[in-house]
Amino acid sequence: MEKLKQNTKLNDALVSELTQKAFIGQVHESRFEVISSAPGYGALCVLTGDFQGKEGIINIKIHTAFKVLSLIFMILPIILVGVTLATREVKYPFDLIVPILMAIAFVRFGLLGLGFRTVSNKSLNRLREVINMREKKTWHNKV
């Protein structure tokens, strides 16, 4: 945990900022909660962990700010279609269902799902380098 503490910019808020350290967050005696300091995508995943001696459990989840942002992106097509239907007369309103579903699926599976898989693997590998993890057993949750 000492190596992780040396490579983490200690901060109560999990907010992305430029730093020379590998992570930003909180590191305590046997547990931690950090985000990657990689510019742009580092804050997408929050890594939390509890260690008892040399063994521990690391959980990776999507940062709350990105959950809210993705929810807005998924609701936005529905709002836009509602505004369009309210302001204009559309001949075939049911033709708008497929583009709405495609936009929601793109945000959910394309941006959030694929982005989470990519960033979580990069963050976990970076954490492995910092704390010298020898063995990696993973259990992938659904995003």
What does it look like?
The mean pLDDT is 87. It is elongated and about 65 Å long. The chain has one domain (1-133). Helix content is 45%, strand content 21%. The protein has three helices and five strands, in the order αβββββαα. A five-stranded mixed β-sheet has the order 1-2-3-4-5. α2 runs antiparallel to α3 (97-131). The chain has 143 residues and is an alpha+beta fold.
One letter per element, helices H and strands E, the order comes to HEEEEEHH
> Strand share of the residues?
15-25%
Low-confidence stretches: none
Annotation field: number of helices: 3
> Based on the structure, what is the oligomeric state of the protein chains?
single chain
Which term fits the overall shape?
elongated
Secondary structural class: alpha+beta
Biggest β-sheet: strands ordered side by side in the sheet: 1-2-3-4-5
Total count of domains: 1
Kindly state the mean pLDDT as a whole number? 87
- The radius of gyration over CA amounts to 20 Å
* Helical amount: 40-55%
Summarize the structure.
The chain has 143 residues and is α+β, with helices and mostly antiparallel strands.
